[in-house]
Write a structure and sequence with these properties.
The structure is a homodimer. Chain A has two domains: 5-152 and 351-368, 3-Layer(aba) Sandwich (Rossmann fold); 155-346, 2-Layer Sandwich (Dihydrodipicolinate Reductase, domain 2), CATH 3.30.360.10. Chain A is 38% helix and 19% strand. Chain A is built from 15 helices and twelve strands. In chain A, the strands form two sheets. Chain A has a seven-stranded mixed beta sheet with strand order 4-3-2-1-5-6-7, sandwiched between helices. Chain A has a five-stranded antiparallel beta sheet with strand order 10-9-8-11-12. In chain A, strand 9 and strand 10 (305-314) form a beta hairpin. The longest helix of chain A has 19 residues, at 350-368. At the A-B interface, helix 8, strand 12 and helix 15 of A face helix 8, strand 12 and helix 15 of B. Strand 12 (341-346) of chain A pairs antiparallel with strand 12 of chain B. Chains A, B: Its EC number is 1.1.1.3.
Chain lengths: 369, 369
Amino acid sequence: MTAPIYLGVVGVGGVGTAFLNQLARLPNAPQLILLARSTQTLLAPTPAYSPAIPAADWKTAVDTPALTKKGALSADEIASYLAAAPGRAILVDNTSDPQLAGQYPVFLRQGISIVTPNKKGFSSDLALWKEIFAAAAQGNALVYHESTVGAGLPVLSTLRDLVATGDEVTRIEGVFSGTLSFLFNTFAPVGGAGGGKWSEVVAQAKELGYTEPDLRDDLNGMDVARKLTILARIAGLDVQAPDAFPIESLIPAELAGLPASADGVAQFMARLPEFDGQMAEIKERAEKAGKVVRYVGSVDVATKEVRVGLQQFNKDSAIAGLKGSDNIISFYTRRYGSNPLIVQGAGAGGDVTAMGVTADLIKVMQRLH
Amino acid sequence: MTAPIYLGVVGVGGVGTAFLNQLARLPNAPQLILLARSTQTLLAPTPAYSPAIPAADWKTAVDTPALTKKGALSADEIASYLAAAPGRAILVDNTSDPQLAGQYPVFLRQGISIVTPNKKGFSSDLALWKEIFAAAAQGNALVYHESTVGAGLPVLSTLRDLVATGDEVTRIEGVFSGTLSFLFNTFAPVGGAGGGKWSEVVAQAKELGYTEPDLRDDLNGMDVARKLTILARIAGLDVQAPDAFPIESLIPAELAGLPASADGVAQFMARLPEFDGQMAEIKERAEKAGKVVRYVGSVDVATKEVRVGLQQFNKDSAIAGLKGSDNIISFYTRRYGSNPLIVQGAGAGGDVTAMGVTADLIKVMQRLH
């Protein structure tokens, strides 16, 4: 009864694979007509855009003679292919590629909606942010990116609801990195004792797979800064770039010059114990004030201040009580008064990130009919 | 460019008034063509359905000769009027009227979407719940009722996203009543000492305006039971009625027979101190176990168990740490693992309840175009 909706998916990493598994189980799923990985693109043949790619069996679908196989396509080529489909089209970008994100306006202007957990398009230069939403309006297309902050947690949808209904968001504060959450919940637990040395906790997080391949990408605070940039912009602040505000890096200045290679990571880990004393001091200073230290991001809407770094919190606060690698996001608003609206839970991981993408996809499909 | 959407609003109490204020400030607001209070209905004149009622000045609009004034209309009459409007129509029910809720299928079958904080339609007999969603499908209309649980907090939208994307919700647990949250956070604070006698805390809540006019409507647990019924049904359980599971009432059996009048309330308050000893015992029993007592609701999806009543919680749990009259809702799911997805904040009050209604209205408008 309703016209079919056509779907292109780029990226088959952790999130991409989890997303395809969820897509395969979706009732009334859209027609998957393009699946691109770094070196290969699988397509439903033109001009019929049929048969579709079976999401459940995408790994073996490459051997299906009925489907078209190509090498890597440019964003322009993908956009042209999707725009010519016989119905509304959606691009799901499951990469973290800044190049592809920079091309979102090309898709949107041609009426192709975007659903993505890729932070790059929304947290880089302000000009790109503005161009994305202008292109969406121009192309009558939609942009949903819930999973760019807090993975599947209802963070952006909640903030957008607050803003759209006329509430005044005064402050947003929280722990936005699963890795940094784990590091500080372990290093400086509310109970006080235990915790171990900083370098040991970092090594443990690395062994448990809680960090990026190069764990300095977690410790430098840039991932958190990108999330704060997105939140601040939705709250109405014109943040020029993700480094346009103070970001406290947990990479000691003395180690900042190490190469961005596997060897650089090894050297970094080997020298990190030299700085255990510094981190112990930070922890003890908080202890003496009856508090704990946590790595947080905050947006103060009235003063237009965005900052990312270490801060002390009362032991009975929600941020101090966080467990494992959970995220927590507190929205202070005029309507909610002194007690904030809080969202808390796992803010990283393939399945929950993909859940945010799938939920967005469902909403976009509902709006496109 | 898009066809106008027509809006009928019933109820101008606390939530209704707050909603109309939010509606008045909404960009691209729908045309308000019907505003009904208990004894009077204001309408945009037929057949033009124009001029619309000014949401900002609805109190004085009754004196506008250009608008039609009538007495109370039946649900059938309201539905006929809205269905004949020259575009898609939405009914916002800001009452808590079970009669009107029972008529939702009449509206939905005629293509009129429903947005409401009224719990009655979704928490009464299972047959009505099923009829509502069948009628919506039949009439190609939408039903949004976020504010029926946790007011403007993103509770139902989150649960629906979890279910729709294929997560397996195993357990839902939380504090669902602002009144009961305040009573137990005050009576049995995590700090232990203080708190005062149960009857004093109840009297304090009444004086602060935190209770229903007849505070026994809070203490009997039925409001919480209705919310649990809604959550359990969205999670997939066929709960027959809001009293089809164990509900622990905080009204002592000896006082259950008091009349449902203002005099009954006065007698209840006068005799409540007789039961302070019982409540102190419950509190002390928890203390001895190193815990605190809270009034919670829970849905165990696997065992299909729904229950509402007192339960002990560890002092470092999120439920124990709740402040003021906040609600907290924890979703335990397969994807989220041992740490639940948590939503927390004010779960009552005109402004935040209306915010949930307005946010739903925006979503319905986006889907209707």
